[in-house]
Automatic annotation (TrEMBL):
Protein name: Uncharacterized protein MANES_01G065400
MHD1 domain mapped to chain residues: 456-558
PANTHER family assigned to the protein according to its UniProt record, in alphabetical order: DNA TOPOISOMERASE 4 SUBUNIT B (DUF810), PROTEIN UNC-13 HOMOLOG
Species assigned in the record: Rhizophora mucronata
Domain of life: Eukaryota
């Protein structure tokens, strides 16, 4: 609000067209009297946006009016520039305990303003620092400030702190950027925290995973704080992308990840800064843990590292993280290629960009496919024993069906995205699934000696999986002209070779029974037709029953 008043510029909203339906946040905000007053359209829209800011920041109408009154007094003094210490001092001087609904709110507000003053004015270690800390302690002590001190003493404390603030405000900026103040670099940690809090106001307080309708207009107001908080366009894109990304992680809201990617793309595609702005951006450092050490990393790089580190972690098991929201998978892959992946460069963190022709990119993507496939397999394999008891079937039969589903999901959901940058992904996934199941199947096949119920369940399921994976493997290689590129083919399960002796042994063992049963049917039957129209004998039904019973196991194998 202070930046808006101080700029004196009319806020240009992003969309001047009349909206059929206003934001639900504004319902009930205006009194009947306010609605009856004539307003200029732009002023009315401006007032509505300020109401949205107030509601989003959860500030009461009474406190909003109180803050507005004091800030207008500050602007009326026509000071050369506005900064956070001047704003805090003006509010401390003009807002009282009676302006708050309860003492707790009042104490929290005073403590917050005192913290701001201490963080900004105690930057330079000298005699002024001790004096400021002493005055700030008095402000924090509510009993001393409101009860023990007279109004003139409180004014003297504020005036003394203001003198220090004016001295620091008069110091030149560090890099000579137009509009730069001493506090851009000296108080940048606080500036960033405040700006992030403002950016979080674009989310609906009732549905935190959604942007409010007026998000673009709200951003136009927030951008008025750039000169006060030392925010550049690149910093805004980085911080807004970070806020969208954080809100996506918290709420999984639709569209948030896509918007975060767009903001980071703006950041990465922006024109190079001039020397002064580049030096300023490089001076804004954050502490970050890396390989057990604490490093100082540039602000923008810290944001990019945090985002791409998360992307790297979820791509290690993309079957789990994107099993429901497939569209987010493309966004994450896009972000990894745009931003890069964190690598160690002689003890320093470096972002290495990926591209389809780069060997490092191929190695990383291959690693993602292998680890995600392994993780997906491990999850289903660990549950097979329990589920087999519930389903009353053999674990290997269930496992074959589950692995087929994994392969289908890989082919239909993930492969269309990965194919653009890593055509081998499907081949690797299919090969691993085939190999994993084969390792489980071999001990079972070695123990097979007869056509038991378990064998009847496992062999058809294994054969089905073998044929399906082989079909996928072949089609993918042919589609990508890789038929002759790889000498390593799938090691088939040899279900046919295993089944032949089993079926032959079973047929031989059943031969005597078949002869005995059919012979008995001949002996006991006189073969008289049932009637002129029914020429078959009654025993033929028994013969068919025998044949059905004998050949049922054979049919179950196919």
């Amino acid at each position: 609000m202070a930046s808006m008043f101080f700029s004196g510029d009319e806020v240009h909203v992003a969309d001047d067209r009349k909206k059929e339906k206003g934001s639900k946040l504004l319902s009930g905000l205006k009194s009947k009297k306010e609605k009856m007053l004539p307003h200029h359209p732009s002023l009315g829209r401006h007032s509505a946006l300020m109401d949205i800011v107030r509601v989003q920041m959860q500030i009461s109408e009474a406190m909003h009016a109180c803050i507005r009154r004091n800030l207008l007094q500050l602007v009326a003094r026509k000071i050369s520039q506005i900064d956070l210490p001047h704003i805090s001092l003006e509010l401390l001087n003009g807002i009282f305990k009676s302006d708050f609904p309860n003492e707790k709110s009042y104490m929290q507000w005073r403590s917050r303003e005192a913290n701001i003053l201490e963080e900004l004015l105690c930057i330079i270690a000298n005699s002024m620092t001790t004096e400021v800390r002493s005055h700030v302690a008095k402000i924090r002590d509510t009993k001393q400030w409101d009860a023990a001190m007279s109004p003139s003493e409180r004014v003297a404390v504020i005036a003394s702190i203001r003198q220090v603030a004016m001295k620091l405000s008069s110091l030149p900026g560090k890099f000579g950027i137009e509009g730069e103040t001493f506090y851009w670099t000296a108080g940048y940690h606080l500036n960033i925290r405040l700006y992030l809090n403002l950016l979080f106001a674009v989310f609906d307080i009732l549905e935190e995973g959604q942007l409010i309708e007026e998000a673009d207009d709200l951003l136009s107001i927030i951008k008025l704080t750039w000169s006060t908080l030392g925010i550049t366009r690149k910093m805004h894109n980085a911080l807004y992308g970070w806020v969208l990304f954080q809100q996506f992680l918290e709420t999984d809201g639709d569209g948030l990840l896509e918007n975060a990617v767009l903001e980071l793309q703006k950041l990465l595609s922006a024109a190079e800064d001039d020397d002064k702005e580049e030096q300023y951006m490089n001076s804004l450092l954050c502490l970050r843990q890396w390989n057990g050490s604490e490093l100082k990393v540039r602000l923008v790089q810290t944001i990019l590292l945090s985002v791409t580190s998360w992307c790297d972690s979820v791509l290690q098991d993309y079957h789990l993280h994107f099993g429901q929201k497939f569209s987010n998978f493309r966004m994450v892959v896009t972000m990894v290629f745009e931003v890069g992946i964190p690598t160690d460069d002689c003890g320093e963190i470096k972002l290495t960009k990926l591209n389809a022709s780069n060997q490092n990119s191929t190695r990383m993507l291959k690693l993602y496919v292998k680890r995600s496939t392994e993780a997906a397999y491990s999850r289903v394999a660990s549950k097979m024993d329990l589920e087999s008891k519930v389903e009353r079937t053999h674990p290997l039969a269930l496992l074959a069906n589950e692995l087929k589903l994994i392969a289908e999901r890989e082919f239909k959901v993930f492969y269309p995205v990965l194919r653009e940058c890593f055509p081998e992904s499907m081949r690797i996934s299919v090969f691993l699934l085939h190999q994993f199941y084969g390792e489980k199947l071999k001990p079972f096949l070695k123990g097979v000696s007869s056509l038991s119920e378990d064998v009847k369940l496992v062999l058809p399921a294994a054969d089905m999986l073998d044929h399906y994976l082989t079909q996928l493997y072949t089609s993918v290689m042919e589609a990508n002209n890789m038929v002759h590129s790889f000498s390593q083919d799938l090691d088939h399960y040899e279900i046919g070779e295993m089944s032949k002796p089993l079926i032959l042994d079973w047929a031989i063992s059943q031969h005597a029974h078949i002869l005995e049963w059919t012979g008995r049917a001949f002996d006991i039957e006189d073969w008289e037709p049932l009637s002129f129209h029914q020429r078959q004998a009654a025993s033929i039904v028994e013969v068919f029953r025998i044949i059905e019973e004998v050949h049922m196991p054979l049919r179950q194998l196919y």
